[in-house]
Design brief:
It is a single chain. With about 55 residues, the chain is mainly beta. The chain is about 10% helix and about 35% strand. A 4-stranded antiparallel sheet has the order 1-2-3-4, with no helix packed on it. The structure holds zinc ion. Zinc ion (ZN) binds near residues 16, 33, 35 and 38. The site of zinc ion has 8 residues, from loops.
Length: about 55
């Protein structure tokens, strides 16, 4: 399922609130912050966007 464009417009980098650019390579989708160049994974159409200092406990 392709990522919703409206969703993409409201998304921002969790670290610096920079704009997000959508990229697709083959079947792998990812989002990239144009400011800090951080790449976010997209799993099943859902972007995984967590702040840099986020720790899963
Ligand atoms: Zn960023």
């Amino acid at each position: 399922m392709p990522l919703d464009k409206t969703l993409l417009e409201i998304l921002a980098c969790p670290d610096d609130h920079g704009d997000i650019k959508y990229t697709k390579k083959g079947k792998k989708e990812s989002l990239k912050c144009v400011k800090c160049k951080r790449v976010f994974e997209v799993k099943d159409g859902i972007p995984i966007m967590l702040p840099k200092d986020f720790k899963e406990e």
